[in-house]
Fold these 2 entries.
Entry 1:
Amino acid sequence: MDLLEYQGKQFFARFDIPVSDGRAVDTVEQAVDAAETIGYPVVVKAQVHAGGRGKAGGVKLASDADEVRHHATNILGLDIKGHVVRILWIEKASDIAEEYYASFTLDRSRKLHLGMLSAQGGVEIEAVAERDPDAIAKIWVDPVDGLTPEACRAWVADAKLNPAATDGAVEILSKLYTAYTEGDADLVEINPLILTDDGRVHALDAKVTVDGNAEFRHEWGDYEATQVRDDREEAAYAKGLQYVGLDGSVGIIANGAGLAMSTLDVVNQVGGSPANFLDIGGGANADVMAGALEIINNDERVRSILINIFGGITRGEEVAKGILEALDRVSIDAPIVIRLDGTNAEEGRALLEPHLSDSLQMEPTMLDAARRAAELAAARA
Ligand code: GDP
Ligand code: MN
């Protein structure tokens, strides 16, 4: 789950990371009230699940009530990269001497946490990585050992921040690592991490992604309430399906997240474009399959459907029965291509065989099935 900036700052504050005093509001009058309470100057900040708000006109300084009113009026309702602003964060303005970048995320290939720190903050880190990769100091942290104070200090030295920022940065980064691990985050990013004119180091922005699977350990109801999902994702979420909407025309149903991702790759590889990611989990019973087919059938982008199932504990004939029963219940507009492999696949395929037609096809391999689905989608474009 992606947090809005103000939620990220509240998350940081729980781990004692310094952030500015602020209030989340959703009307112009509340924005003015908040500013009067906080004291001027303030910053009026759009709260959307997108970066680059500053450039898009979603971050404005205000030094009196009229300016707050003016900016709040302009920013509420503003569309930033397809996200309409409904919430504002009003915070005490800071005097910035320097802007840095700091983050922790997981380096999956190394199976270690990765910290990144740069003296060139405030801009997109991707741009820094491209232009001047040496300007990003990296540290890999073994989760068993944690981030030691010595390692943290060496990392900060490596980033060549202003010496005045060293102690503050070491302190914040240690806390940020704690927030990242104990807070069950997949990503914590501060851009900019600032050095103020009076020598304090401070988080001016917050980008936090928490691992939804850890929800049972936390109280994350507020984060849930501000998640943005398109209509397809909302419907899939209501059915408890692991679904991500995409822009292509081949609807995908697969069992297991790994197989679902491979299916997307293979569809792309053969020149098709996936309409979604959808993992129906280990089993493939009729209820789940029917739900999955409904979600995909309601997606007007979909021109063909690829069902890619590898039977494991769930045997092939159960999968086949599930598919057939689901097809009895929901009528599907787009042609379906099935690839069924794994445990008892032959038995499963034998059950499907008599039902095959132009609108229900079967292919022996994942590659063949992806090709067929991509062709069908192209033909019906
Ligand atoms: P983003 O554009 O979505 O990353 O939003 P940020 O929260 O990072 O704000 C963008 C930029 O606005 C920052 O890099 C700062 O340069 C500026 N900014 C944000 N807050 C303040 C503040 O309190 N004082 C000043 N002077 N500038 C700020
Ligand atoms: Mn930022």
Entry 2:
Amino acid sequence: MSSQPFALPQTTPGVFITFEGIDGAGKTTHMDTLERLLQSQGREVVRTREPGGTPLAEKLRALFLHDAMDPLTETLLVFAARRDHLTQVILPALARGAWVMCDRFTDATFAYQGGGRGFDLQILGTLEGWVQERHQPDLTFLFDLPPAVAASRLAAARQPDRFEAQDTAFFERVRQAYLRRREQQPERFALIQADASPEAVAEQILHIVQAKGWA
Ligand code: TYD
């Protein structure tokens, strides 16, 4: 079968930034700050999330977060949501030169389904190639911190979903899988010491953005 009828557009003048880390790492606050910074420079920012970001993908997200399912079903659902998100929102935004800030992307699948659930990494790589072709984020902030610290931050926060309800050992596997992913693609990742104070984390992010010439 030719993959041509499903081929994705190639040109993407915009900038694609993703934010990753275990639950409770504190991504949201820092995404807010960076979004304001980029907007203050007159840039169009598209703020989105995975799974989700389109009406269809948000429906899949609700199933993914709350219904029990086996790891293959979980993986196929998240990649289906990603394909819709990529074709409907992310690539069109990048094509018109926008800055896309996405809360989680495929590294989360390698970390949670691969590391956390133990799902076959080669199959994840195959699905990644089918769904994304050559498309990858330009920069990925990896918020790294010990699972025990993240858990204590989450404890007071809210009703846990299926993932947040996992134990520390699960999150340690997720964390290690994220770090391995960074070892494989070091040029794409910026590692953030997320157990530092919010001010210190904001400083780390600002330095990285400045080093890129983006601020
Ligand atoms: P997130 O949006 O960070 O949760 P919240 O809105 O509660 O802060 O992520 C939702 C959950 O989905 C999170 O626990 C990680 C999980 N997830 C996966 O397991 N695989 C994936 O590919 C993605 C994108 C998320």
